Amino acid sequence: MEQGRNIVQGSIGIGGLKVLAAVIIGLSLSLPVEAQTYVGKARAVDGDSLEIGSTRFRLFEIDAVEKHQTCERDRQAWSCGADASSALAALVERGSVNCT
User: Fold this and answer.
1) Beta pairing, strands 71-73 & 49-52
2) What is the Cα–Cα distance from 90 to 96, expressed in whole angstroms?
3) How far is 67 from 14, CA to CA, in rounded Å?
4) How many CB atoms lie within 10 A of CB 86?
5) How far apart are CA 100 and CA 98, in angstroms?
6) Which residues contact 79 (CB under 8 A, 6 or more apart)?
7) pTM for the whole thing?
8) CA-CA distance, 8 to 17, in Å (whole number)?
9) ∠ CA 8-24-31, rounded to 5°
10) What is the pLDDT of residues 50-67, one digit of tens each?
């Protein structure tokens, strides 16, 4: 063993325990205690968001164009954002929606 250095093998030491404790505490604080479910008539906000009452939801892993966005189709401007909003509105008009 070199002089002036302490080498500890097979142990994570006090510093390692502090880091491990901080990670465990951080993870436990970031986990939801209980997911709340919202059920009811939904309103499409745009192509990837909706509201049930006053609570707004973004659809997971859906990235639609913005409501007022235009696109180009056949070299002409097209209201693709309005079409995306209308498509989601048609889906949620069918009945009750459950969001968690």
Assistant:
1) unpaired
2) 12
3) 54
4) 13
5) 7
6) 70
7) 0.61
8) 14
9) 165
10) 999 999 999 988 889 888
